[in-house]
Amino acid sequence: MPNVSRIKMCSTFILTALAFDRYMAICHPVNKRIHQMRQTIFITSFLALLSIALILPVVFSATVRSFTGLGQYVNSRKEIYNIVKYMCVDGMRRDVKVMVVGFLVAFAFVLPGSLLTFFYTKIILRLRHQQRTMLQSRIPIRRITVYTMAVTLFYLSCQIPFWLPQIYVIVCMMFGYTINPSHITLTYYSHLLPFVSASFNWIFYARLNSQFKKGLVLVTERLIRERKEFDEFALERIISKSDGMVTLCPNCEVRHNC
């Protein structure tokens, strides 16, 4: 179970890193250093180490607990056996568990979800602004908006039910409430949602990536065109200022008019 949790967190971090990469490409295309291979390897390695560090307390405290009193089993030879259920659980103290789960909720759910929403919102606003400033815009802003909303809402719809039982446990521990018996069943079903998200994410991201490529090409063309126009304007200003200036030949003291 700890390995599964680590994979879930690492997947969430990678989706956030993808959103950050697209945000930098669309909103800050001049900064090319962030798209270098060295930076990509550093970011992915850091996210993997971060996910491992967050799950280490659960790994080190994991233990197997037996549950008895679940009834008896009678085989064909009329032999009676007590049913014992073994479950892998964390052996953390209550205060430590509250702190660990709180960190996981903050760094593996709240922070990535907020950053993901922020990055894609800024991207859509930037592309809409770019569309308004261009007379003949070919940016597929409607498709980008639809796919971006689909990616964000699908991510949140799979992550929120997964983390709500964790938050529920924290609240019950902090205020001494009794945990509802149906909580375990709800937890089992909610753990399926991140895998459902991982199964369908590639479809949404493939469609979204194709539209982002079109938007990035058009934004880059606009940036190059503006820089070229600025260079031409600056050159004209320099030439106009140099008209009529008196220059002195460096090899003689004869004055020349430009």
TrEMBL record:
One of its GO terms (molecular function) is G protein-coupled receptor activity. InterPro entries: GPCR_Rhodpsn, GPCR_Rhodpsn_7TM. GO terms for cellular component: neuron projection; plasma membrane. Gene3D superfamilies: Rhodopsin 7-helix transmembrane proteins. It is a multi-pass membrane protein. The chain crosses the membrane at residues 41-60, 100-125, 146-176, 188-206. It is found in: Cell membrane. Residues 1-205 form the G-protein coupled receptors family 1 profile domain. Keywords: Cell membrane, G-protein coupled receptor, Membrane, Receptor, Transducer, Transmembrane, Transmembrane helix. It holds the Pfam family 7tm_1. SUPFAM superfamilies: Family A G protein-coupled receptor-like (SSF81321). Belongs to the G-protein coupled receptor 1 family. This is G_PROTEIN_RECEP_F1_2 domain-containing protein. The lineage of its organism: Eukaryota, Metazoa, Ecdysozoa, Nematoda, Chromadorea.
